[in-house]
Amino acid sequence: MHCALYTAGTCRSCQWLDTPYSQQLADKQRDLHSLLEGLPVGEWREPVTGPESAFRNKAKMVVSGSVERPLLGMLHRDGTPVDLCECPLYPARFPAVFSVLKTFIARAGLTPYNVARKRGELKFLLLTESQKDGGMMLRFVLRSEAKLAQLRAALPWLQQQLPQLTVISANIQPVHMAILEGDTEIPLTDVQRLEEEFNHVPLFIRPQSFFQTNPQVAERLYATARDWVRERGNIASMWDLFCGVGGFGLHCATPDMKLTGIEISAEAIACAKESASRLGLKNVEFQALDSTGFATGKGEVPDLVLVNPPRRGIGKTLCDYLSQMAPDTILYSSCNAQTMAKDLALLPGYAIARVQLFDMFPHTAHYEVMALLTREI
Question: What does this protein do (predicted)?
């Protein structure tokens, strides 16, 4: 992948861009082998890859510059802004949208937030695109509600210019820290969820729900989880912990399976419930709860537990409880192989039947991994 920003030295977010992609994969696979050294693995599957460019469905753009000439991109540690509108990680449709948004910022009088001076209103623009129909979700992250009336008044022009903006909202983030968004979300359109579809499974993205940023590889990750679960035979009950919008559980569910999905985000749970309803699944329950608290408070033992935790992993408390509860199968999907390796070491009653790397983040050291664990008799 060629990137003029990288060549010019203005952005080095893709730290491995100078490394041939085949070597990137080899290095990631070697890192994963090293992390799991001492934990016998029955089968190593070949890494799953996707496009090397234009694969991101979401842009998180810091807004800087002036209201007349805004910049969309990032800030270096010294405060120097970098415009990333031409970043090759984004789909080809994004640059034209960014151009219109720059004009809109000036028309609406949304003063970019100045970090050094702690002044201004518009902090970030968050843009997400659905690969299903090209619909987009746009979120304005503001310091306060001071410019909200101006934003609302100017929106008809923006919607006329960009009819693909299905969902628009304003998020209020008043804290002077590097925090992407706040708790308050103000809808600016009647529709407040973006529709997506992976492997004929309908999924929904709401403003404050997490969704994978590499849809091509995520689609294969969910399909692989589905295949591995079905290979285990008749799974009557399954827990999907840290379930997000339900992607894993909804792919794995069958009409006869009892599926329980747990996620702390109420927005994500609303998405999962809508997907389950669209699929006609009746024996499904999604709840907005802490996954560890839910699991350790239950007496029942499902046939299979799927965990997809944040970067911190599932931790000792949940590992100890899973060992005690002893479901026949654990499927562990991780965005941080280091914490996954620590967790797997805390599950001594299980054999690692299979491991596979999913390269969600080309040109960086990050990757996703999934491991199938079976209870040793």
Answer: Catalyzes the formation of 5-methyl-uridine at position 747 (m5U747) in 23S rRNA.
